[in-house]
Amino acid sequence: MASLGEDLLGVVNKLQDLVFNTIGNDSLDLPQIVVVGSQSSGKSSVLENIVGRDFLPRGSGIVTRRPLILQLINVPSNSDRPEGDEIHVPHTPASVAGQDE
After folding, report:
1. Interval 53-93: pLDDT, tens
2. Which of 65, 59, 53 is nearest to 5 (CA)?
3. Are 63 and 44 in contact (CB under 8 A)?
């Protein structure tokens, strides 16, 4: 039985294929970054530095257990956003959010 993370990754991959096959690659030009490395080599720190915020769990051993797909959305500073920044990671498996499964 596949885990929630594996199921979600499969859905995202199917959606990307659908978009590519429907409107083509030229119409959807999204930058992508892949971070790969051994355990405790700083992959999560690289992602946090790109975003400019600390939002991933910290600890010893394996902490981030699932593949992550982060979507960054630029919100202009002159928007009607309330004070303070908010980091929202949709569809985060419980183990990534620091909770037991």
Report:
1. 888 887 777 777 777 777 666 666 665 655 555 555 554 44
2. 65
3. yes
* Distance set, CA 97 to CA 11, 30, 76, 92 (Å): 20, 26, 27, 6
CB-based contacts of 4, cutoff 8 Å, min separation 6: 93, 94
pLDDT tens-digit readout, 6-25: 676 677 777 777 877 787 66
d(CA 9, CA 5): 6
Spatial contact of 98 and 57, defined as CB atoms under 8 Å apart: yes
Which residue type does 23 have?
A: I
Domain segments of the chain as ranges: 1-74+86-101
DSSP 78: T
- d(C-alpha 38, C-alpha 8), whole Å: 23
pLDDT the model gives residue 28: 59
Q: What is the pTM of this model?
A: 0.48
